[in-house]
Amino acid sequence: MLEQVSILVAEDDANDIFLMRRAFERAGVQNPVAFVRSGSEAIDYLSGSGAYAQREQHPLPGLFLLDLRMPGLDGFDVLAWLRTQHQFDTLPVVVFTSSKLQTDIDRSRDMGVYDYRVKPSSFQDLVRLLDDVRKCWLEERIQGQNS
Questions:
Q1: Which of 45, 59, 125, 138 suits 53 as a labelling partner, its CA being 20 to 30 A distant?
Q2: Paired sense of beta strands 33-36 and 7-10, if any
Q3: C-alpha to C-alpha distance for 129 and 27, rounded to whole angstroms
Q4: 84: three-class secondary structure by DSSP
Q5: Percent of the chain with pLDDT strictly greater than 90
Q6: CA–CA separation, 94 vs 54, rounded Å?
Q7: Burial status of residue 71 (CB atoms within 10 A of its CB: 0-12, 13-18, 19 or more)
Q8: What are phi and psi of 20, to 5 degrees?
Q9: Backbone phi, then psi, for 12, in 5-degree steps?
Q10: Helix (H, G, I), strand (E, B), or coil: what is residue 64?
């Protein structure tokens, strides 16, 4: 059942998307993974509007990995929007960013993220990190729904 839950990743850097796809594969993650490249695209996906209106093709995620630094609407804008959308109150949002700034960490936590992870520099560390995040937050969500 865990493998059927989709993961949404908001990431604007094409190289990071490529590496994340490979890392998910290397980690043996079988969950469907969708990538959006901007904050506005993330909001469209989550709200099921525009190109993402077909829920069969673009299911609601069970885990959302969010980069903070994106052009246009950034990760903080997406977090602010999410706080107004109560249907996503239980969606695990994990900030996945290169920022190590304490102000970003604190602000993210104040805005309700479940976790804050800094992108690692090595591919093997990325594989381990993505697998850990998936297991931790998806398993917790599934267990919470079954309680």
A1: 138
A2: parallel
A3: 9
A4: coil
A5: 80
A6: 25
A7: exposed
A8: -65, -40
A9: -95, -15
A10: strand
> Which H or E run includes 48?
none
63-95 pLDDT, tens per residue? 999 999 998 999 999 999 999 999 999 999 999
143: pLDDT strictly greater than 80: no
Phi, psi of 31 (to 5 degrees): -65, 145
Two tokens, residue 33: 């993974």
Tell me the per-residue pLDDT of 10-45, one tens digit each, with 9 for 90 and over: 999 999 999 999 999 999 888 899 999 999 999 999
State residue 103's pLDDT score.
97
**Length in residues, the chain:** 147
DSSP for 56-72, written as a single string: TTSPPPSEEEE-S--SS
Domain with residues 2-146, CATH architecture: 3-Layer(aba) Sandwich (3.40)
In the chain, domain spans: 2-146
State the pairing for strand pair 115-118/63-66. unpaired
Q: What is the pLDDT of residue 145?
A: 57
